[in-house]
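Chapter summary example.
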Amino acid sequence: MPDAPHAGGGPGVPDLPSTGQAGSSHRVALEQPGLCDYFANKWTALLKNKRDDAADITANFAFHAWMRDSLLANRPYDDIVRQILAATGTIVSNPPVAWYKRVKEPHLQQEDVAQLFLGVRMQCAQCHHHPFERWSQQDYYSLSAFFSQVGRKPTAIAGEDLIFHKRGTAQLENKKTRTPVKPAALGGPILDIAPDDDPRLQLADWMGAKDNPFFATALVNRYWKHFFKRGLIEPEDDIRDSNPATNPALLSDLAKHFVESGFDLKEVVRVITRSQAYQLSAMPNDHNAVDRQNFSHFYPKRMQAEVLLDAINQVTGAQSDFADLPPGTRAISLPDNSYNRASPFLKVFGRPEGASVCECERVQSSSLAQSLHLMNAADVKAKLATSNGRADRLSKAEKSVPDRIRELYQAALSREPTAEEIRLSETHLLKPRLDAQDKPLPAAQALKQGYEDLIWALVNTKEFLYNH
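The structure predicted for these 468 residues follows.
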């Protein structure tokens, strides 16, 4: 699914309708597997589904498949989080335990959970209590204590552990005071949890509670940023008293609606994309040209690496093949970071390595390397010239040249070309071309090169590269 349907529905996903249009096509879009592929790719990267060696492949594929299936079934968000936090068993029998393969220490587990699912950065509270912030060292260790009884045993599979709850008192030592600290939710009372009870279940209960001030707020703010380029709170995972929302009432209403929907992730996508704010033009006027936080117009953003690669494949008629995956697998369906090493395109355009729960690991800014790659890289040139690709097929098509140009513009930019664009394109397509020895190329070959040039020009435009 594209980052924003303003520029068209993208690979495999139909355009979403504007506010006021019939909702049937919108519901169809939300049921497309491409939506689940896209968000599974997003969530597994944030949950550190990375491959450090060949032995990780089973865990990575299993966890990605589980996340995709959960999204495809529209499993409630609080249930997805509970399955991850309270996971026990082996990866083969229960794929969510793969998260514990990556994050092994209680304080790291707490930091990741707080930042990713609560939008609270707890890292600094480990060492000191900032006078202008709410959370103290005691809060840091009491939240970490929920993970103090996670046990692991080696299994017959190399590198894989059995995750289980160790019987005992849930507590963790405060490194500064040297005193044991029992579990407590952020802002909540100290809990006395029975030795036989898994404290992670109580953490999951608190996170999914309707009155939790962080859980739903963090999710809707994260999804708002996904569609609007910036969150109502920015950064999206830094919810604190000294970093208020630009529109507190809107954020509160979105969070309330999310809770009332039963933590329905597709409903969050639906309500955001059908909003009036989302339908605004990316073209500013005299009054909002400098606005960067009030969402008075749509903020254009570059398509992310995987979507852009899939879009180029769709326009050129080519495909990218990846190891251990069926031919033609789309980039948004890749299960882990290992494919970045084999794809210069994904690396240059900033696909994350899955080393952090911060969205900032994904590079969304433009660079000279990206421009040069699109203009000159061998993999892009090969896609343009692919056998039976779009350039090849258009050069042999029986319909008129203007109709072929219209097909290309519809495929690349989701719009009709202007009369001037048709004129310029037709002039370029029909001009004679020479080979390396300055001899005229055969007409069919020259026409194919013309279409390759035209596709190349279109994929290098900002209109193609940006959601707008």
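To summarize the output: Residues 1-22 have pLDDT under 50 and may be disordered.
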